[in-house]
Amino acid sequence: MNNKKKDFIRGLYEIGAVKFGSFTLKSGLESPFYLDLRKVISYPKLHAFMCEMLIEKAAELSFDIVMGIPYTALPSAASIAEKLEKPLLMLRKEKKAYGAGGIIVGDQELKGRCLIVDDLITTGSSKFETADSLRAEGFEASDILVVVDRSAGAEAELKARGLELYSLISLDEIVDLLCADGSLKIEKVEEIRAFTSGLSAVVPAEAGNKVEANPLTLKLLEVMKRKETNLILSLDTEDAGEFFSILEASADKIAMVKTHIDIIKDFTPDFTRRLVKLAGEKDFLIFEDRKFADIGNTVKHQFYGGIYNIADWADCVTSHLIAGEGTVKGLFPNGANPDRPQAAFLLARMSSKGNLITEDYSRRVIDAGRGSSSIVSGYIGHGSDVDDIKKFRAMIPEGQLLLMPGVKLERGSDKLGQQYLTAEEAIAGGADCIIVGRGIIEAENPAETAEIYRQRAWTVYENK
Ligand code: 5BU
User: Fold this and answer.
1) Average pLDDT in the chain
2) From 59, 236, 318, 360, which residue has the greatest number of CB atoms within 10 Å?
3) Ligand 1, residues 243, 362, 418: which to mutate, most atoms within 8 A of Cβ?
């Protein structure tokens, strides 16, 4: 190891950018070390030193554009671009979850071969995503320059996807030097090695991306299997008579019925009594799409009180997380009730055009839902195409479900911004269930049409 590297590693240790102990990562994994390179910009000498090393490395490579990845790497990317007189572009952090909208900050007309500059590489999975989205925008993405490579051998996987990795230092080098310096005990070194080698090179975050399915999830999966259906009928009609006439005719085809109870104009408590009775007879679950969004205390009243008394009859409900986790905690203040499986599905993405949900928001919803898996059965999501849904699905833990509205037999949209994928696309992308409303209830024969949706979705689901 050359002296520059040694000085840099010692500098990182001194400012506390490298820490050893026990840290809970976003994925839920316990890590014996923690790297926080965000601190470096606050130490001008160390930062300048790091940039100098990055510039030296970058000068050996051939590229047209420096592509900075937010946020940590942006100052160093700017420094490289300036010194080597190359244009700088930045990848937008708060990009829309999917659909239109630029992902690049800088001159939108610029295209060419870019050097992706980031602070860290761990599994490589986020780098694949970055390269894919840059390629989709018409860039040539082949070289990645990072400060620290803490990957458990992501290099081979990167190469297979046409990406070359360059780094200033590796986690092994940090550990070796600090151990030799006496800053790190040998037992800790072994713990770190065991931890990194245990990570999968491709999607290590997903190594811990697993939760135990809660009782409501298991109940739903059992109904699906028993009835061979992953169709959720969204029975959005205002008339109770029509509601039951469609439901009775289609009940054999569905795993759940989704209600908007507040649109029933002739609602009486008899409505829900009849609904629960029918659900028992015909073996389907009841899903009230209430989209709770308020503070926990208000949500508690909305769920357990009022004229609808949703908690009384709904097996599951939808909830936003915009107000924070208190919303879901307000739904189930005592956690899961072992005698009555009930759970929420969180809105991680929506199907409507122009919705304000960002990728970061979706990720945070899933992180929160993972942490409350005993009362969160999964997520509502959507996507622009099969690949987009697959990427989204990869964030969702095993043991939680993805339900997808905005589904019809053909792609399309309605006049108010609803966007439709096909049933096959939804399931091929990784949705567990499709949610279909007007595609069925406005059909000439809703029950026959429900059967078509059931067959199409179930066939793809079974083949997976
Ligand atoms: P449609 O008739 O199939 O378009 O009805 C879709 C249903 O799913 C409707 O009840 C919406 O309220 C619900 N929905 C949705 O369409 N998109 C979303 O992102 C969410 C719910 Br969340």
Assistant:
1) 92
2) 318
3) 418
Task: Output the furthest CA–CA distance in the chain (Å, rounded).
Answer: 81
Which residue's CA lies nearest to atom 8 of ligand 1? Answer: 405
Look-up: residue for tokens 């959720």? Answer: 232
Q: Is 385 a catalytic residue?
A: no
The DSSP line for 264-319 is -TT--HHHHHHHHHHHHHHT-EEEEEEEE-S-HHHHHHHHHSTTT-HHHH-SEEEE
| Kind of pairing between the strands at 412-413 and 419-422 | antiparallel
* pLDDT tens per residue, range 44-101: 999 999 999 999 999 999 999 999 999 999 999 999 999 999 999 999 876 544 444 5
Give 391-431 pLDDT, tens digit per residue: 899 999 999 999 999 999 999 999 999 999 999 999 999 99
Q: Is the CB of 406 under 6 A from ligand 1?
A: yes
Q: Are the CB atoms for 117 and 145 separated by under 8 Å? A: yes
Three-state SS letters, 49-103: HHHHHHHHHHHCCCCCEEEECCCCCHHHHHHHHHHCCCCEEEECCCCECCCCCCC
- State the distance from the centre of ligand 1 to the C-alpha of 340, rounded, in angstroms: 26
Active-site annotation holds for 39: no
- Identify the active-site residue in 26, 185, 291, 390: 291
Percentage of the chain modeled with pLDDT above 70:
94
User: 439 in ligand 1 pocket by Cβ < 6 Å?
Assistant: yes
